[in-house]
Amino acid sequence: MKKIIANIKMGQTPSETKKYLMTLASKFDDEIKELTICLPYTSLACGQYLLSNTNIAIGAQNLSDEEKGSYTGEISGAMLKDSGVKRVIIGHSERRSKFKETNKLINKKIKIALKNRLEVILCVGENLIDKNTMKTLDVITVQIEECLKGLYENELENITIAYEPVWAIGTGKSATIKEIEASVSAIRKAVAHSFSQKAGDEMSIVYGGSINVKNIASIIKAKGLDGVLIGGSSLDVQNLLYMISLC
Length: 247
Ligand code: PGA
Description:
Blueprint: E1 2-7, H1 14-27, E2 33-38, H2 44-51, E3 56-60, H3 77-82, E4 85-90, H4 93-98, H5 103-115, E5 119-124, H6 128-132, H7 136-147, E6 159-163, H8 177-194, H9 197-202, E7 204-208, H10 216-219, E8 227-230, H11 237-245
Parallel strand pairs: 1-2, 1-8, 2-3, 3-4, 4-5, 5-6, 6-7, 7-8
Helix pairs in contact: 1-2, 7-8
2-phosphoglycolic acid binds at residues 7, 164, 169-170, 208-211, 229-233.
């Protein structure tokens, strides 16, 4: 089953989400594609109301690394679960770079998410300097090892890894099929090294970074790839529906 994840980021108000999801819910009826829409926190209630009887899953874009308590402005895993959230993006490069999230913190968030029975979409990827100094595969390997540290192998079935090169996010420059395939294979190797060959082979992996209506059909065919994570191009609902039809 192909996975399609749309990341709305800070791109919609709840009123805008309402219109967007009404159109999406009336047009999406694909049983063989797994669609997740990662909404801003303020749109989750709207998502829960409009999507509960559909086969579109609600995603969130972040969660607190704390369970509960005096953490003004934070949102816990339990709150997400109770808001109908099925999956949560953790370790997005915008959180790593703009909010200084480390692999250690991301590891803690993954454990909290799983404890709250949320599936995890873990983002990894190299920046431009890493790419230019040929460090891509090393960087991804360290991210995988540190972010998945201490997990049980059977928990991996609730994790999808999103390979998102930082230089490709929101820039209009997507990675080539060859680059995607090399990174996907490095991710499988890193998972196999930390867990088992079987875990590496079965790991669910998607690609994200400047996916659009023109490149999605070829990207989705990259060897070893289970789906895509779409940011900017998913904000237009007709665009998203068209991209889904190409997967
Ligand atoms: P983009 O974003 O498709 O706009 O590059 C992808 C992402 O940030 O997940």
